[in-house]
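User: I've been trying to design a sequence by hand for this structure and keep getting stuck. Would you show me what you'd pick, starting by listing the structure so we're on the same page?

Assistant: Good idea, let's start from the same input. This is the structure you sent:
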């Protein structure tokens, strides 16, 4: 994606090939990005993946969604020099690497709050952080085991990262995670 691309409220964007975000991909309320099976959505150096949704923590119908196109899984990487700011987003059907935020990437303040991870792989991580978010905390992150697969590792951090225990509710893990 070169330049700024905005996915309008209630609209969907399907990505059939590997995609580098080199400027800005902005997701509005109730929008969806669908990534083809086996493909990569990468926030490249200088690129930004963001949502433009205000105050929606109790109304998941307003959340943006990143998911697979029809079947399979996909990769989501925020590369060195890329920026992530996607509060109020549901991430579905990622591959065993989950969302990877690499060293040198930027997480904006609150940029990973109010995320819902759904349809996890049978093994692996749903979120791998090589950089801590500002303030060292993720607020209201939920992990749902919709497909009743073996419980995946929810968050991997670098060797200096510790994660507080999550509140477990039925088939979901939800809570605030402290990263130091």
């Amino acid at each position: 994606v070169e330049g700024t691309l905005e996915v309008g409220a209630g609209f969907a964007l399907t990505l059939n090939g590997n995609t580098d975000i080199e400027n800005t991909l902005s997701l509005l309320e109730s929008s969806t990005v669908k990534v083809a099976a086996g493909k990569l959505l990468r926030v490249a150096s200088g690129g930004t993946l963001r949502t433009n949704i205000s105050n929606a923590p109790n109304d998941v119908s307003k959340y943006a969604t990143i998911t697979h196109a029809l079947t399979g899984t996909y990769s989501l990487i925020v590369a060195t020099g890329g920026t992530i700011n996607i509060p109020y987003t549901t991430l579905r059907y990622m591959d065993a690497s989950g969302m990877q935020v690499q060293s040198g990437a930027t997480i904006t303040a609150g940029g990973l709050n109010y995320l819902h991870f759904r349809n996890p792989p049978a093994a692996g991580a749903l979120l791998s952080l090589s950089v801590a978010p500002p303030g060292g905390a993720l607020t209201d992150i939920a992990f749902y085991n919709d497909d009743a697969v073996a419980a995946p590792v929810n968050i991997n951090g670098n060797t200096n990262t510790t994660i507080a225990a999550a509140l477990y509710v039925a088939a979901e893990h939800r809570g605030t995670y402290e990263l130091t």
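That's my pick for every position. To get oriented when you compare it with your attempt: The chain is about 0% helix and 50% strand. The first strand starts at residue 4 and ends at 7.
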